[in-house]
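Section 3.1: Structural characterization of target chains.
Under the original work plan, the team committed to producing a structural model for every single-chain target entering the pipeline before any wet-lab resources were allocated. The record below documents one such target. The sequence was received from the expression subgroup and is listed exactly as submitted; it comprises 139 residues.
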Amino acid sequence: MDGALRDVCVLDADVEDWERVVRDLVASGWVVEFSTTHPRGEELLRSGAPELFAALERSGEDSVTLAVRIDDIWFTSYFFDPSEIEFTFDPRDVVDESDFAVVEKFMKRIGNACGKRVVMTMESSTDHVGLPALLEYRP
């Protein structure tokens, strides 16, 4: 853990939560960029989260990234684990109240999409559950 970034997470998620969050973000009107090294590319995003995670598990080496830009803040997910929805952002992009409002808006959007608690923590590669929440939202 280097702690340079912040993670916005939904813990105890499942692929259906991923599906709801991804579909909601795509429909949000925000800038959403999807990239993958998987040969089926964009088809995976349209196929839905269960098929996307299954394809990643089968390949063992491909990656998927979903980046969402709200104003000047990018929130990026790498689809590491179906049991945790994680978006990373750079705290240096949050310089005033309006930027902080963007972070709150993003957390509320994903929490409302899946109906689950969202926490912001320091960046962690292993254990968000063990880290204190810097901010949290409960729908």
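Strands lie at 6-11, 31-36, 64-70, 73-77, 84-89, 118-122, 135-137.
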